[in-house]
Write a structure and sequence with these properties.
This protein has four helices and eight strands; from the N terminus they run βαααββββββαβ. By secondary structure, the protein is of the alpha+beta class. The strands form two sheets. A four-stranded antiparallel beta sheet has the order 1-2-3-4, covered by helices on one side. Helix 1 runs antiparallel to helix 2 and helix 1 runs antiparallel to helix 3.
Length: 169
């Protein structure tokens, strides 16, 4: 399909009519996203932190109890490397579902009215699905694909999104 800024071809669906309400719209392609807990970024961050602690202990002669306290933040990361939990998101033509180590959630797309994306102060996004009845369903951070990809896939299914930048709460 070729779109231009000024016109659309008569045998095509205009951009404002594409989505879930138009019967001749082609079904959107499903979106599948998967993430593992074990990553090179996590392993290198833990390695660099522990190397800095060892350097501090040897070269700067930092006391052992202070080094032990400073090593405590690495424990959750080491646990994540050991367990290697899997998280998945699947967006099909009629539902969105995600799977984490703690549970599974599936929501029919007919119940979703809006995707709200809040930019956090660490520059990541917090995604919230707002349902037709006003209920808010927060998506876990580790199941989120790149935000542009998620927005594009949901807009192809007729679900709008809103971005809110740097909210306090």
């Amino acid at each position: 399909m070729k779109w231009s800024a000024e016109f659309w071809m008569p045998d095509q669906i205009p951009p404002d009519q594409a989505g879930r309400d138009h019967p001749t719209a082609a079904p959107p392609t499903p979106l599948h996203f998967q993430r593992r807990g074990r990553s090179w970024a996590l392993a290198s961050a833990i390695f660099l932190w522990l190397a800095a602690l060892i350097f501090g202990g040897i070269a700067l002669e930092i006391s052992a109890w202070l080094l032990a306290v400073l090593a405590l933040p690495t424990l959750p990361g080491l646990w994540e490397l050991w367990r290697n939990p899997m998280s998945r998101l699947a967006l099909t033509a009629d539902q969105i579902c995600w799977f984490t180590a703690t549970g599974n959630t599936a929501v029919p797309l007919a119940k979703v009215s809006l995707l709200r994306l809040d930019r956090r102060w660490d520059l990541s996004f917090r995604a919230t699905l707002i349902l037709e009845d006003g209920q808010k369903l927060r998506m876990p951070q580790h199941v989120l694909p790149p935000v542009e990809q998620l927005e594009e896939a949901l807009s192809a299914r007729g679900i709008p999104s809103q971005r809110h930048h740097f909210t306090v709460l």
